[in-house]
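B., you asked whether I could sanity-check this one before it goes into the benchmark set. Here's the sequence:
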Amino acid sequence: MSETQPGRGRSRVTVLALDRWGSVLVGGEGPPSAILREGESADAGALRVFEETTGELLEELHLFRNGEANHHVYYCDPDLDLDDLDPPAGTSLRYVAPVDIDASGLPGEARTLLTRFVGSSAYRAMFH
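And here's what the prediction gave me:
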């Protein structure tokens, strides 16, 4: 089992990082996401996976309740420039605008999560 695929009973984290226009940072399979390590808190796991994916350390995260007990989804708005990020070799990062989610080519689970998030009151509150 790869580290990014959930196992039975294993918790995972996903970080939805936004730019100033409300687009979400994604890689090939979706936003930064990983299985929590043994004994790792969800907060610590979210910070770890984001740093491993982008090379950037986040200062602030907010929890987004998406209805799955074993999937901790966080969001933030660091407005990072793609040219300043340091993803692992072979990883490509990009921003996906809310209107482009369906045409983004992301797997269904990632598209569903992004659609749910950009339709949420948490997302709208960031752009009031």
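One thing to flag: The longest helix spans residues 42-54. Otherwise nothing jumped out at me.
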